[in-house]
Each structure stands twice: as structure tokens, then as C-alpha cells.
Amino acid sequence: MELSLLLVQQICQLFIMIFFGFLLVKTKTLSTDDSKVLSKLLLFVVSPCAIITSFTIEYTPDKLMGLGLAFLGAFIVHLIYIPLTEILAKIFGFAPIEKATIIYSNSGNLIIPLVGAILGKEWVLYTSGYMVIQTILLWTHAKSLVCNEKNYDFKKIFLNINVLAIIIGLFIFFSQIQLPNLVLTTIDKVGSMMGPVAMIVIGMLIGNMNFRDIFSEKRTYFICLMRLVVFPLIIVFLFKLSGLTNLSKDAIQIFLITILAASAPAAATITQFAQLYNKHPGYASVMNVMSVIFSIITMPLMVMIYQIL
Fold first, then answer.
1. Which of these, 227, 210, 228, lies nearest to 282 by C-alpha position?
2. Are 67 and 125 within 8 A, CB to CB?
3. At how many degrees (to 10) do helices 281-308 and 231-242 cross?
4. What does the radius of gyration of the chain's CA atoms come to, in whole angstroms?
5. 230-248 tens-digit pLDDT
6. What residues have CB less than 8 Å from 84, skipping those under 6 apart?
7. Mind spelling out the 3-state secondary structure of 77-118?
8. For the chain, what percent of residues have pLDDT higher than 70?
């Protein structure tokens, strides 16, 4: 019950941050176009800092095992989500931006502070498993999907600042290099901006929209049902019934973190891609906001089902 209540609190905080961005545009303090600057700041500065920070912990064999399970859980989720979405797209006619919204979640902005608050800062490391897998896929599969690019430029992928941040983070973790406290503190503070700025950007994007337009888009409800209920339930039952939670003493908690990430609202990065490349940013923002609203109920529900099974 405590976990469910904290989930509600964290999600409500995100919604309030979205409202701040909405007010900035409504009061004409900033325009919707101004959010592009913040989107670039998020993708190319804040996100890499958050990734590097997650790896700056002490190395132990148990943590290495746990990190391996975190990567395994994230790999399984995307191994199911991506092909399943493609199959359902043929039935329901999902647009590329809808497919990306269903597959990719807000696994950093929401999950990192939530895990720290509930399980303790020592468990935040295991959020990096999902973040790393998703970051690689966001800058390959998701970007290709949203931008309708059929070929990957692997040079650009591996030179992308977020992928480089993953490589740097892994090197720091395995080599146990101690960064100067000044540098570490600075990176940590910049990375902590991820949640607030991402939500403010989403609020700014819907600032010119009418709330009636947001809630009257019937297809959005169906996309949110897939993103927040149908797909996460598949993962919950798979983890529990397959015996994966018995692989180690920490497996139940580690896969709980994976469940949280897999059932989180739609990824803010998808909205930022849509905005930067002009691929239906308004619709992407509506789906994101709606998923945040509904996740107040659905995320605690997924956690309760996972704990009961």
C-alpha cells in the first residue's frame, strides 16, 4: 500500500509540472516554439548526465548480478513490446507515433525518483538496466519509427551523446574510477533536472490546445489502455509465472523496478522527437498527458497484481 501511495504522489507531481508548462504558454510568458530549446537541452545535456550518475556506485558481485537481471528484464520487455506492437498495428492501424508511444515509457523521469524514495538510493542502479536498453532503442528504433527513417546511421548512433554516456557510465562502474566530487555533484544536479524540465516541455506543447480537444480524442484512450494496462499485464504474468523472480534474493525487487518502468506513462522523449522533427507533436503531447493522468490508477494496480501473484 505504501508503494502505491508514493506512486500516486510521484505521478501527481509530474502532472503539476506539466501544468506549469501549460501556464507559461497560456500567460504568453513563453511560446510553444520556445520548448524546442528545452527539448534539445534535455536530449543532449540532461539525459546524458542522468545516465552517467546512475553508474557511479560501488561495484560488488551481488550488484553485478542484479544489474544483469535488470538488463535481462528490460531486454525481455522490449523483445515482447516491439513485435507485439507491430502485430497489433496491422489489426488496429497504429500510426508510427502511436506505436512509439505504446512501446516506450517514461522510465527515467518517473522511475528514478520513485525507486529512490521507496526502495532506497542503493536500488537506483537497477533502473539503469531499463534506461540503457531503452536509450539505445530510442535513438535507433524509436527515432527511425517517428521520423520514418528506414535505415540506421550507425556512426551517428554510436557518436550520439546519450549512447556515449552509457559507455562512459559502464566504464566508470567496472573500473571504479572515482570522479572528483565537484564533477560528480555537478553531473548529478544537472541529471536531476530531467523530470521537471521534460514535464514542463509537455505542458508547453499543449498550451495552445483546448482541454476539450485533449479529452475528446477517443483513440488516445485506446493507446493508453495498451501502454498502461494490456502490455504491462503481459510482463507481470510472464515474470511471475516463468520463475524469473526466483533467480536471486534480490530478483523480486529488481523485476519490480522493471515492472514500474514497463508500466510507466509514455516516454517524454517520443514527444521531444515528434517536436524536433515535426511529426505530430501535438498528438504526441496529448497521448503523453493522458497516459500520465491514467497512470495514477494503473501503475499502483500493476504493482498490486505483481505483489499478489
1. 210
2. yes
3. 30
4. 18
5. 999 999 999 999 989 888 8
6. 231, 234
7. HHHHHHHHHHHHHHHHCCCHHHHHHHHCECCCCCHHHHHHHH
8. 94
